Amino acid sequence: MTSPLSDLLNLDLSDTKKIIAEYIWIGGSGMDIRSKARTLPGPVSDPTKLPKWNYDGSSTDQAAGDDSEVILYPQAIFKDPFRKGNNILVMCDAYTPAGDPIPTNNRNKAVKIFDHPNVKAEEPWFGIEQEYTLLKKDVKWPLGWPLGGFPGPQGPYYCAVGADKAFGRDIVDAHYKACLYSGLSIGGANGEVMPGQWEFQISPTVGIGAGDQLWVARYILERITEICGVIVSFDPKPIQGDWNGAAAHTNFSTKSMRKDGGLDLIKEAIKKLEVKHKQHIAAYGEGNERRLTGKHETADINTFSWGVANRGASVRVGRDTEKEGKGYFEDRRPSSNMDPYLVTSMIAETTIL
C-alpha cells in the first residue's frame, strides 16, 4: 500500500499543462551543488527559451550581503527523474546582474576554449570515470564497514557481488537508471577497489557537454543518497592508509587522434601535458596530494609519467589504441572532486591550442 505522502509526490500534473523546472548550479566551494524549483507555463526543450533567475549569492559564498544578487543563465536541459512527466532539470551557470561571469563560473571559461575554431574543428571527446564513496550519515564512515573498525583488506571488493562485499548497490542501480531516464550519456557503473566505493562513467561526450552531464549526474546521485539517508563523498582519499583513493579519470581524444596515425598525435599531446604538469595538478582537485602517492594505482603527484596499460602512470594509453595506432588516452591525475569544466577545457587548451 502506498502512503498518502507518496500519493501526493506521484500526482500527475499533465492536466494543469504546467511544468516544474529545477535550476541547478555550483556554489562557492566549487563542489556544493545547489538547486531550486520554479513553475513554467508549459514544456520547454531549448535552454535559451528558459527565463534567467536570481539567487542569494551571499548564502552560497559567491557575493557580499549588501550586493547579493547572482543571476542564473540556463545552459542545458535534462528530464527530471524525480518528478517525471515533462518536468526538467536545468544546468545553469552564474553571472553578476551586469552580465559578467562570477569568479567561480568555470563553465564560462571552458566555453571560450571549446568555442575556439581550432578546438571546434577537432571535436574533442571526453569520457569521465567518476568514483565516489558512500558513507553512513551520522558517523561519516563507509557503508558496510564495521562501526569504528575496518573490513578485510582490499582484493575481494572490486566489481564484486555478495552482501559481505558490495555495499549500496540499490543506490548505484537507481542512479544508473535515473541518469539514462534523464538523457545523460552514462556508460556504465561498477564497484571499486575499496569497499563502499563505486564508479559511474559518462561516455564520450563532445566539449562542454561532458561537464554539464557530469554535474547533473552528480546532482542526481546527491538527490538519491539524500532519499536513502546516506552521504556521498567525492573526497579523493576518504580513508587514510592501505585503501584506494577516489579519482575522476578523464579519457580524451580529438578527431585527428581517432584517425589512422593518431597515436603519434597522442604522444605529442602527452608531451605537452608533461610540460604543463604543475598547472594541471593545481586545477585537478583539492586534496589530490593525499591520493597521488605512487601507491594504489596512482603516479606520484610530483612526477609525470605515461605508459601503455600502466595504471601507475599519470597518463595511460590503452592496449587497443597502441595496437590500432589511433584512439584516445586517459589522464589519471584528476581527483574525484575535480571540476569537469576546468579539467576538460584545460586538457583541450594544452593539447590543441
TrEMBL record:
Gene Ontology cellular component list: cytoplasm
All residue ranges annotated as the GS catalytic domain in the record: 106-353
Residues of the signal peptide: none
InterPro entries: Gln_synt_N, Gln_synt_N_sf, Gln_synth/guanido_kin_cat_dom, Gln_synth_cat_dom, Gln_synth_gly_rich_site, Gln_synth_N_conserv_site, Glutamine_Synthetase
GO MF term list: ATP binding; glutamine synthetase activity
Catalyzed reactions per annotation: L-glutamate + NH4(+) + ATP = L-glutamine + ADP + phosphate + H(+)
EC annotation from Swiss-Prot or TrEMBL: 6.3.1.2
Keyword annotations: ATP-binding, Ligase, Nucleotide-binding
Highest taxon above the source species: Eukaryota
Domain GS beta-grasp residues, every copy: 19-99
Enzyme class: ligase
Record GO biological process: glutamine biosynthetic process
Transmembrane segments: none
Annotated family: Belongs to the glutamine synthetase family.
Name this protein carries in UniProt: Glutamine synthetase
Organism: Arabidopsis lyrata subsp. lyrata (Lyre-leaved rock-cress)
Taxonomic path: Eukaryota, Viridiplantae, Streptophyta, Embryophyta, Tracheophyta
